[in-house]
Design goal:
Elements (H helix, E strand, L loop, with lengths): L6 H19 L13 H21 L3 H14 L4 H13 L4 H13 L8 H14 L3 H9 L7 H14 L2 H17 L4 H15 E3 L6 E3 L4 H13 L9 H9 L2 H13 L6 H8 L5 H8 L6 E3 H10 L3 H12 L4 E4 L9 E6 L2 E7 L9 E6 L2 E7 L4 E5 L5 E7 L8 E6 L10 E4 L9 E4 L12 H7 E8 L5 E8 L2 E9 L2 E8 L8 E5 L9 E7 L7 H12 L8 E8 L9 E5 L5 E5 L9 E5 L9 E10 L4 E10 L2 E7 L4 E7 L5 E4 L5 H10 L9 E4 L3 E8 L2 E8 H10 L6
Helix pairs in contact: 1-10, 2-3, 2-4, 3-4, 4-5, 5-6, 6-7, 6-8, 7-8, 8-9, 8-10, 9-11, 10-12, 11-12, 12-13, 14-15, 14-16
Length: 734
């Protein structure tokens, strides 16, 4: 049972107070430091000094200092179990969640080098954490393994674990241990609380037709324990007022009525009083209701609310109660794990749920939190999956968001869901079966689900028509994929509201050929077109693969067979392609461009794949213009290891050898010229555009010159033959 006044928390604080007293009494009196010059020994010595300092802070209850000091000690030597143990205690006392404490105490137990403490205290602490987080069998196993631990603290955890297992056999064993513990530890109030709170949950159950509550009689052993505890109430610390109300609930006859009247006479308040007093028939339904309603806007266990409501038989009073429930602005808590701790919290506004919070295993890590609009879920945050589910009409899902899905990629990945194709229900919302005269809705505990059960990733993809995810291609970039039948067919790449690329996916799957238009310079014009294709046999480097898949999918994709097949660029932004680069599967690269932006590729460069033992082979093709007759033709230059070796004119089926000149990057076609000629060429070459042929008039010859790329090509022409050919309109040598 969960009491809104915090009885469980109180009992646990009592437990930990006694526990720490036991810890302090078990300290060793001294620490011996080894006198050695080795680095490890020096580190050990420093770590033990930090341990001693942490112990001093523990005595002062300076838990922040204990934690910091333990962390410092662990930095020097992580083999000292005591440091992890004290750190775990400090985390507990600093109200850190259990899921943070458990790994630390586990570390202490896996480390065998204990200095001032022994493992027994850590085992008890660990067992209590296991029990509190839904692992009662594990808790008992930790306590019972050799050497078996027997102490008031260990028995407390054993009994709590047996009750939490909640079988007929475990409950009988728990009651037997309670009977023993009350004799051995007669003044330990923890066992009183443990017994009455668990037995209350066992005694009061919803009846078969769910119209009220049945009260089960205590077992003979439990009855004997209850009577003994009740008799000893005067011997306990009077500051624990809850003892009296719990005792009165389980007292019988006139003794019960006497205890209840005494409790009320002293001005104490407790939510159990109107329930017990009404059952004992010492107050009227009207008096009980007025008393109960003083708690109505606080935090109340759902079971107690329903139990009390079922006890009101007067119709006018029920109607009055209904009015309060219709305006209910409080919190209902549920203990779905039978461990006296709420793990389901429902916050109400105007009589309807506004927020639902679920901690499945009580490790103080909330699995999910639901936002509601007048009782209807509109959004659920699934913390263990880093996800959000947005509802259209509950339980139909409108969209699903995942946070930080991929390593190194920050931000949400959002799926837009097609209407009525995907539903997800963390729970059912039902009319309270015990509340028959009003429409008061509660959570059906039996329908609670969590984690991956809320959604299946395959179902999400199949039901989505759009996915929006972050991209590493550019800073703050995102990609919006349009999806059909579970596969993308189109994508928009954008930063903020500005699109910088648009992709088209052939047959709508991840391995299809892809065309992507890109605005490289952010001027709003998609001047570059990228062509991607599939080749599973093509071996790319990890860097190349990561770059390609990041561009397309937003992040690296392992073992992807996609490669960049080519690009096309509109350099002058006239919507016509004037630059193109093709990447062949064999490794060759062909670059083509238009020198005058007329959409005709008049220049090309092909780099052949490097082969072992062979020279690097390249090929330039260029349209040159002859200033003599204004004709143009394609000139192809073959290079090996970056040096021209031949020139051909495909249209004329002519090929010429290439002879290096004295100056770098100057080459003669067919016949070499002298140094004077080369100096003359160097002197005027910059006056002409690349690809523009010009003719030099020397004493004995003409020299035709053209620049292709970084190279200058020159050809000597016989002056007499060329002059005759020119006069007739032909050129015998061209």
């Amino acid at each position: 049972m969960v009491i809104q006044t915090g009885l469980y928390m109180l009992s646990d604080k009592v437990f930990m107070k006694k526990f720490f007293c036991f810890v302090l009494s078990s300290l060793m009196l001294s620490v011996v430091f080894a006198n050695t010059t080795s680095s490890s020994a020096a580190n050990r010595k420093t770590a033990l000094r930090y341990l001693q300092l942490a112990k001093n802070y523990l005595v002062k209850n300076d838990w922040e200092a204990v934690k910091k000091t333990c962390d410092n000690g662990i930095q020097y030597d992580d083999n000292v179990a005591d440091l992890y143990y004290l750190k775990a205690l400090s985390l507990f006392n600093l109200s850190c969640p259990r899921y943070e404490i458990i790994p630390v105490i586990e570390k202490s137990l896996s480390t065998t080098e204990w200095v001032d403490y022994n493992m027994s205290n850590a085992r008890v602490f660990y067992a209590d954490l296991l029990c509190s987080t839904g692992k009662p069998f594990d808790a008992i196993s930790v306590l019972d393994k050799a050497p078996l631990i027997y102490s008031s603290d260990a028995e407390y955890v054993r009994i709590k674990s047996l009750y939490e297992i909640n079988s007929a056999d475990s409950i009988a064993k728990a009651e037997e241990k309670i009977e023993s513990a009350r004799r051995v530890y007669p003044n330990d109030v923890r066992f009183f609380y443990l017994f009455f709170n668990y037995e209350y949950n066992l005694c009061y159950k919803v009846n078969a037709d769910r119209t009220g509550f049945d009260k089960k009689e205590l077992s003979p052993v439990a009855r004997k324990i209850a009577d003994s505890f009740i008799a000893h109430v005067p011997n306990y610390d009077k500051s624990y007022t809850d003892l009296e109300i719990l005792a009165s609930v389980f007292a019988e006859g006139e003794n019960q009525r006497r205890l209840l009247k005494a409790f009320n006479a002293r001005g104490f308040n407790h939510i159990l009083y109107p329930i017990a007093a009404l059952e004992a028939e010492i107050i009227s339904e009207e008096e009980a209701l007025e008393y109960f309603l003083t708690f109505i806007d606080g935090t109340i266990e759902a079971k107690l609310l329903m139990q009390f409501y079922s006890m009101i038989t007067d119709e006018s009073l029920k109607k009055y109660f209904d009015e309060h429930l219709n305006a209910f602005k409080g919190t209902l808590i549920y203990d779905t794990n039978n461990n006296l701790e709420e793990n389901l919290t429902v916050v109400y506004e105007r009589g309807r749920a506004s927020k639902v919070i679920f901690d499945f295993d009580n490790d103080q890590f909330v699995e999910w939190e639901v936002e509601c609009d007048f009782g209807v879920p509109v959004k659920i945050k699934v913390f263990d999956q880093l996800a959000q589910i947005i509802y259209g009409t509950y339980p139909d899902v409108k969209s699903i968001l995942f946070e930080d899905v991929e390593p190194g990629v920050k931000g949400f990945t959002a799926y837009n869901i097609i209407d009525e194709t995907f539903s997800s229900k963390p729970f059912d919302i039902i009319k309270a079966p015990e509340v028959l005269t009003t429409d008061f809705y509660v959570i059906d505990e039996s329908t609670l689900i969590f984690g991956k059960a809320l959604f299946d990733s395959d179902r999400i993809i199949a039901s989505a028509n759009e996915m929006d995810k972050p991209s590493l291609e550019r800073k703050n970039a995102r990609i919006k994929f349009s999806i059909l039948n579970g596969t993308p067919y189109e994508a928009s790449y954008y930063i903020g509201n500005k699109e910088y690329a648009h992709g088209y996916f052939g047959n709508g799957n991840e391995d299809a050929s892809i065309v992507r238009a890109v605005d490289k310079d952010d001027d709003g014009i998609f001047e570059t077109t990228e062509f991607y294709a599939i080749n599973s046999k093509l071996k790319l480097s990890e860097e190349e693969r990561d770059a390609i898949t990041t561009n397309i999918w937003g992040s690296p994709v392992k073992d992807a067979s996609l490669y960049l097949a080519g690009i096309a660029i509109d350099r002058n932004l006239d919507t016509a392609i004037d630059f193109k680069e093709t990447y062949f599967e064999n490794g060759d690269v062909l670059t083509e461009w238009s020198s005058n932006y007329d959409s005709t590729f008049d220049v090309s460069y092909r780099k052949y794949k490097m082969q072992e033992g062979k020279p690097l082979t390249e090929e330039y093709s260029y349209f040159v213009k002859d200033i003599a007759d204004n004709s143009s033709y394609k000139l192809t230059v073959l290079l090996q290891n970056s040096k021209p070796v031949s020139i051909s004119i495909p249209s004329k089926s002519e090929m010429y050898s290439v002879i290096p000149g004295k100056y770098e990057n100057l080459f003669w076609i067919g016949v070499s010229g002298n140094e004077e000629y080369e100096l003359n060429i160097i002197g005027i070459i910059n006056s002409y555009d690349q690809g523009q042929m010009f003719q030099m008039d020397e004493k004995n010859c003409y020299i035709r010159v053209v620049r292709v790329g970084e190279n200058i090509f020159a050809r000597i022409l016989d002056k007499e033959i060329f002059s005759d050919a020119s006069s007739s309109g032909t050129d015998e040598n061209e």
